[in-house]
Structure formats: C-alpha cells, structure tokens
Amino acid sequence: MTVQDAPTHDDVLGEITDQGPNYSNLGFLGTTVLMMKTEVGLGVLSIPTALNILGLAPGILCLCALAAITTWSEYIVGTFKANHPGVYAIDDVGALLFGPLGPWYPGRDWIFVTGSGILSISIGLNAVSTHGACTAVFVAIGALVGFLGSSGRTLGRITWLASIGLPSILIALVVVTIAVGVQDSPASAPTTRGPWVSDYQIVGDPTFPQAISAVVSLVFAYSGSSGFFPIVSEMRNPSQYTRALIVCKVGVTLIYGVIGCLLYYYCGSYVASPALGSAGGTVKKVCYGLALPGLIVTTTIVAHIPSKFVFVHLLRGSPHLTSSSPTHWITWLGCTLSVTLIAYIIASAIPSFDALVSLIGALLGTLTCFQPMACMWLYDNWHSGTRGSKRWCCMVAWSILVIAIGTFLMVAGTYGSVVAVIASYQTSGGGGAFSCADNSNLV
Fold first, then answer.
1. Predicted pLDDT at 443
2. In terms of DSSP bridges, do strands 14-15 and 9-10 run parallel, antiparallel, or are they unpaired?
3. 98 and 353 in contact (C-beta within 8 Å)?
4. Residue 219: its H or E element
C-alpha cells in the first residue's frame, strides 16, 4: 500500500484530510522500529541486575517465558484491533469488555514509564556532567525534553526519532559490554591481589521479595504490549502488523539475552543499575553520552502514547480530533503537559531506578500485557464456532493461565517492589525524593 492508498476514513479518528494530521501513515519499517523502541529502552538497562538476583539460568528461563507470553499478547492486540476497528487504545478495550468502568482500566501505566524515562535522562546527565548540577534540575530538564518531544501529533512524525534512538541505546550497550570484557574488573568491584574473577551465579539465592522484584523488572522490559494498540491503529496497512511483530520480538529477545548475559557474566554482583555505569570512569560518560539520545527518544514515545490515549478519549467524535484548530492544539498540548508533569513528580518521588522499574512492571505492566489480552481472546472466541474443540479448550486453558500468572505477578511483585522502595528510602535516610544527590553512582 502506498502513501496515496492510505485510508481517508478511520473508525476512531474519523475523516483524515490534508487539513489536519495524518494519523494513518505508519509503514512496515516505521512500525517495526517503533515496536522495538517501545520495548528496547529502559527495561534492558535493568536486565543484568535481575540476572544477578535470580542467577543466570533462572533469569534466562524467565526472560524466554515472558517473551513467549508477551508475543502472544501482542499478537492478540493485532487480531482484536482487526475484529474491532473502533478500538484505539487499551482504554477502549476496557470499555468494550467491562462496560462503564472500562475506560478507567489502567492504560495510564505509560505515565509511570514516562517517569522512569525522565529518571534515566537525569542519571545520564549526571554521568556525562560528573554531577554538574542538582539532580532535581536534571529531572526537570528530562521532563521538559519529554514534553517537547512528545508533542508531535502522530506516531508517523516521530518514527525518525525512533530510528535514531534505537541504535543509540544499542551502541551504548555494546560499548559498555566490550569495556567490562576487556577491563581487569568492574568499576565497583573491590581491589584485590591477583586477577579478579567474576562472581556470577548460575542459580541465585534471593529472598522472595528480591526474586519477585527481579521477575517483574523483566516484565517491565516486555511491557510495551498496550502501546502496540496506537501503533497498529496508525498503520497504513494493518495486515503487516504480525510480520512486524515477529521481527520486533525476535530482535528484542536476542538483544535482551545477549547483552544481559554478557554484562552479568563479566560484572557479576558488581553490575551497575542502570547497567551503563558498570564500566565506570570515562567509559561511563561515553556510554551515557551515546545513550542519551535513545533515553530521550524513549521518554518521547512513552509520553506520547498516554497523551494520545487521553487526547482521543476527549475529542473522539469531534471534528477537532483531525483538524488543526485552536481547540485541537490546546487539548493536545494540555494532554502532553499533564502527562509529563505527573511523570516528573513520579521520577522525583521514587529516585531508585530499580525500585521504580519493578514497581511499574508489577503494579501496571502485568495488568496491561497479561490479563487484558487473555480476556480479549475469551471475549472474541467464547461463543465461536469451534467451541468445545480441543484447540478451543487449550486456548481457554492458556488464557486462564495467563490471567493467573499476571495476577500473581501483580500482587506478589507489588509487595516485593514496595519492600524495595522502602529499602531505598532507608538507605538514603528518607531524603531521596526531590534530592540533589548524584543518582548515577548507584549499583
């Protein structure tokens, strides 16, 4: 399908004309890059720490299991959108499945993800500048950058940012991996006589709160599922969605597995969080300098998605949705500003990267990439013509299992994450929120 063949009418957005933004302008390549950038960003920076807690073997098993579940979840996103063209976001799914309370179904976890993006920008700025300013200032800068970047009105317009941000993160990860491989020891490892030997473990020995927090931080790395709704909604040719999804998930899982394992193998328990600080010194500055464009792009995308959720909800059915009227612009900029302000408060209130990532993965990540997709399959297939067949029974059992796994991880993971947040506050003496302290030296 060419640009000229793009649809002029959308069940959600209404008439698409030259007088307003073109919300159906994502091609195959742009879709794949956006999918990958939605997932490869902040989550990959916490994977080596999760492996350190769980151990190499259990960590990889969890990573592969989550990759399989979320691949299925994201496939269901595409089929559900095809079956229900009027759905734009996870909020619309909630309304369809659960009635009047459905629009409040948590699709706004992306605001918390935006908070972690702002926090990662502040860590990067601290690292590059050697704590050249109060961290609270850097957090504010991260929020401002997120607001300006996310204010582009269509995903098609910000695809080029993703094509810059994805290589940026990957190059930084490759550099830090090579650096820790050739160094005598990780930056935070104690000085010892003789060659340093990594203390990586095949199987870890964590407490339950530590283990479940590590698992839900891996969930966070794969929790982009609900963000795929607006992506497929803005594709020129939605029939290419599944092909783009396969390319995305294979690439993402290989990146997570290879980078996570290598960094943990070389650093052991002295891997930094976020992982880019593991080599320390000049390499740390170089890595964060390389990664900053990627961190900024991640924050831009994850701020754009919840802003668009709210924007479409507010103006749906109105001619202002697809025009460039003052009402359109005021509403849109109001949405992006509100999202970044809330995210700024979150980033300032929970200054521990690992604690924030695991909390998002547990409390919100599971609730938007496990349970709803299983409910979506049941909604579309409960009364299907294949009801009672072996395949139908297996899929019902699978859907119930996904709901059970997601619910367990949500409840247990939230408990473990809250324990981690409390521990981080005790470590900082209760002064971590809105702090000026350097947040780039945490391990």
1. 44
2. antiparallel
3. no
4. helix 208-221
pLDDT digits (tens, 9 = 90+) for 389-403: 999 999 999 999 999
In-domain check, residue 423: yes
Residues spanned by the domain of 230: 23-189+197-427
Coil/strand/helix, residue 316: coil
Q: What is the pTM of this model?
A: 0.84
Q: How far is CA 8 from CA 4, 88, 164, 321, in A?
A: 10, 16, 30, 14
Span 396-433, pLDDT tens digits:
999 999 999 999 998 998 888 888 777 766 665 444 56
Q: Is residue 17 part of a domain?
A: no
Domain count, the chain: 1
H-assigned helices in 268-280: none
Residue 188 phi, psi dihedral angles, 5° rounding? -95, 0
The secondary structure of residue 15, as a DSSP letter, is: E
277-333: per-residue pLDDT in tens? 888 778 888 988 998 998 898 899 889 888 888 888 888 888 888 788 899 999 999
- Tokens at 436, concatenated: 């000026």
Give the three-state DSSP class for 14: strand
Residues 6 or more apart whose CB falls under 8 angstroms from that of 397 comprise: none
Return left, alpha or beta for 238; rule: phi > 0 is left, psi -120 to 50 is alpha, else beta: alpha
- Residue 7 maps to a domain: no
In a domain, 438, yes or no: no
Rounded to an integer, what is the distance from CA 403 to the centroid of its chain? 20
- Please say whether the beta carbons of 6 and 236 come within 8 A: yes
One DSSP character per residue, 108-155 reads THHHHHHHHHHHHHHHHHHHHHTS-S-HHHHHHHHHHHHHHHHT-S-H
- What is the Cα–Cα distance from 282 to 287, expressed in whole angstroms? 9
The mean pLDDT value of the chain amounts to 84
Q: How many CB atoms lie within 10 A of CB 140?
A: 17
Task: Specify the CATH number for the domain of residue 381.
Answer: 1.20.1740.10
